[in-house]
Design a protein that fits this description.
This protein is mostly helical. The protein is built from 9 helices and no strands.
Length: 202
Amino acid sequence: MVVELIDVPTRTDEQLIAAGRKLLVKLEIAQLELGRLALEFAPIGEPGIKTGAYDRVRRYAEEIGLDEVNVRNYRTVAHGWQGIDTEGFGFSLLKGCMSIGDKDGFLEALRENTPAPTRSGRWTVAAAIQFARDNGFWSHLTSRRDAVQGLIASVKRACKGLSLVAEYELDEPEREALAQALYDLALELATAREMVRPKGTK
């Protein structure tokens, strides 16, 4: 069988890269906006109080045709940065820096400093995390050995507790609160992993 090749106009590498960068900006804006929409559709309530938000997030994901896990991640990040001016920063950076306490101060500091040289000219997640480390935005986690040892112990206790979840008889408010906490924890762990990753490793 002979396959006839059709001449397709080709673009240069530079044109393809530029187009990809533009799409990435639009994607990250859309991810954050989807999170805000999901948060408005299913606001995060007080722990232990049944609000039906867990099921509403699932419904929202089904209605718009997007994977539920993605919608929950977008919603969690949107909630973490709620009320903060995030203009100019993408979803990935905001997700990677969720654990920072002084979020307003951190973003302002990023705006006032030139990012490390990158081909895109924007702050990358890794560069922003390193900036946070170097400028004390995460110093409360790394300043003392006791704090680190306490954090390790807390993680181990949490892991042990999670292994027993199946044995708990949870009511609906507890199940809803625990499910949301697990999604939040997944984001926090991803950030923490970047914070402690030895330099030069992938």
